[in-house]
Specification:
Blueprint lengths: L1 H27 L5 E5 L3 H18 L3 E5 L2 H11 L4 E6 L4 H10 L2 E6 L6 E7 H6 L25 E4 L6 H12 L6 E4 L4 H13 L6 E5 L2 H5 L2 E3 L7 H7 L17 E6 H6 L1 H9 L4 H13 L4 H11 L1 H4 L5 H9 L2
Parallel strand pairs: 1-2, 6-7
Antiparallel strand pairs: 3-10, 4-10, 5-8, 5-9
């Protein structure tokens, strides 16, 4: 009798397990592990954990976070079809590989993660913008160099240069020539990305002027309330010359809007259409994500902790990505 009871209990347990897996598969679309790339910078890491939480808690998926970076992740997705999702893939940086991925058909673009795309440009702090409404575009710098004058080099404005070896270095130097700023500005070296970030922190904390290159969305833009100066629309031919250190006649043009994709494997789209639907709607406004990252930087938070902060404080954004029942499940997990 005990043996029969044990067999019956075991059978019921097996049914429960199989039933649970079936429910998970029906909701998520697959019981296979879904891999999500966590890149090495804060925004990409945060978005990886945002995606993981929604897929795990909201859809019942089996999700694994895997380490990544722009070039190796793109190369791996092309060659192996792994990872399944890269929530912040800077397509502009790996254009050749991206084109191969699309041609091969194993990867597709689910959407654009940043509402305004990736941004590069010349930035000033909000207090400088408020005190000097006459400085709205890069073309206004030539006649307003005194605003950025540094006491250590009186008679010239100070422009904080791109770190040496970065792509923006040659572009910025050529833009300086195109705008005729050589006579009125000192192009001040920053040495590295960390030094540039520290310089911005120092200038803003002292309410001193700052003009220089940066990119967004990042914690720096949100934390230090930087405002990008207006530039003309992107012109491919002019910009190509700006990228050449030997450009004979640099002309003013803006940067192209950086294409930053939510990249996913086609196989995932086919077996998990609900997941694909979520990924197609996953997008964050640039200003708001910069503010989220600023909180993370201030609090020395991990990407997972920043993701939790985002869920709790920016419901108006992420609740638009998924159905109401998924929203409630995700909310209940925090």
């Amino acid at each position: 009798m005990k043996i029969k009871t044990s067999i019956l209990a075991g059978a019921c347990l097996s049914c429960m397990v199989l039933g649970g897996n079936a429910a998970q598969a029906a909701e998520c679309g697959t019981t296979d592990p879904i891999t999500v790339a966590e890149m090495t910078w804060l925004s990409a890491g945060t978005l990886a954990y945002v995606a993981k939480a929604i897929l795990t808690e909201g859809y019942g998926c089996n999700v694994q976070i895997v380490p990544g970076d722009t070039v190796p992740t793109a190369s791996s997705m092309l060659a192996k079809g792994e990872p399944d999702i890269a929530p912040e893939l800077w397509v502009s940086t790996v254009k050749s590989t991206w084109d191969q991925m699309l041609a091969k058909g194993t990867v597709y673009k689910a959407g654009d993660i940043f509402a305004s795309g990736g941004q590069e440009g010349w930035w000033i702090p909000d207090y400088v913008a408020e005190a000097h409404p006459e400085i709205r575009s890069v073309s206004d710098l030539k006649d307003n160099w005194k605003v950025f004058e540094d006491e250590s080099n009186a008679g010239k404005g100070r422009f904080y240069a791109c770190p040496p070896g970065w792509g923006c270095e040659i572009i910025t130097n050529n833009l300086v020539k195109a705008l005729g700023l050589e006579e009125t500005y000192e192009i001040y070296p920053t040495g590295s990305g960390a030094n540039l970030k520290a310089t911005i922190a120092r200038q803003v904390s002292r309410k001193k002027p700052f003009i220089g290159w940066y990119w967004g969305p990042t914690e720096v833009i949100g934390k230090y309330k930087l405002k990008v100066l207006e530039m003309p629309a992107y012109d491919a031919a002019k910009f190509t010359c700006l990228t050449d250190a030997k450009c004979e006649k640099p002309e003013l043009t803006g940067w192209a809007i950086g294409e930053v994709a939510v990249a996913a494997t086609t196989s995932l789209k086919e077996k998990a259409p609900a997941v694909a639907e979520f990924l197609s709607k996953m997008q964050v406004p640039n200003a708001e994500i910069s503010d989220v990252l600023a909180w993370g930087d201030d609090n020395k938070a991990s990407p997972e902790e920043v993701a939790t902060y985002f869920f709790k404080n920016y419901e108006a954004i992420w609740t638009k990505w998924v159905p109401a029942d998924v929203v409630e499940k995700v909310k209940a997990s925090f």
